[in-house]
Amino acid sequence: MIFLPPEVDELTDDEGFDDSETLDSSVRDVICPIICMVVANTCVIYNMVNAEKKSIKEIRRHIAIAYLKKGNTVQIQIGIPSYTISSRVKEIETVRRDGVGHIISKREKQRRCQMQNCLGKPLTCCMKCNVTLCPKYHT
User: Fold this and answer.
1) Computed over its alpha carbons, how large is the radius of gyration of the chain?
2) 56 vs 98, more confident
3) For residues 80-111, b (16+ Cβ closer than 10 Å) or e, as one string?
4) Would you state the pLDDT for residue 1?
5) What average pLDDT does the structure give for the chain?
6) What's the farthest any 2 CA atoms get from each other in the chain?
7) pLDDT tens-digit map of 60-94
């Protein structure tokens, strides 16, 4: 359970905030160490591979910014105005090239590549951006 200062606790009780809405301590005791371990391993691997060394604090900040930017996707309409394909999402340029969490996966069906001036029909898509594309999209 998260303990709040008395002033904050009184304010949140007046506003109808339920303390049970916070993450259950039994779950938090398992999840938080796993996340910390993943970030620490990411830092070690990053510093082994790259010449530029980053601290855990910088890597955590980079991960947080990537997740904050991920929420800023814009749906665009294509073809007939009333017809929207949900797989065609326009990503912010900084998220597209941030190099964090872009996982290329295979699809069962071929679809058109979302890059401009690309006529390819790949079987790959980016799970982070939810866009059908050729693998060179994020480079």
Assistant:
1) 21
2) 56
3) eeeeeeeebeebeeebbebeeebeeeeeeeeb
4) 47
5) 70
6) 62
7) 998 888 877 776 555 555 656 554 444 444 555 55
The answer to whether 101 and 123 have CB atoms below 8 angstroms apart is no
| Interacting residues of 131 by C-beta distance below 8 A, sequence separation 6+ | 87, 88, 89, 91, 114, 125, 137
Scan for tokens 């005791």, then name that residue: 29
CA distance to 47, 94, 125, per residue, from 43 (Å)? 6, 21, 27
Q: How far apart are CA 15 and CA 92, in angstroms?
A: 36
Over 60: is that where the pLDDT of 26 sits?
yes
* pLDDT, mean of residues 85-106: 57
| Higher-confidence position of 42 and 134 | 42
HEC string of the chain equals CCCCCHHHHHHHHHCCCCHHHCCCHHHHHHHHHHHHHHHHHHHHHHHHHCCCCCCHHHHHHHHHHHHHHHCCCEECCCCCCCCCCCCCEECCHHHHCCCCCCCEEECCCCCCCCCCCCCCCCCEEECCCCEECCHHHHC
Which of 21, 71, 66, 73 is closest to 39 using CA atoms? 66
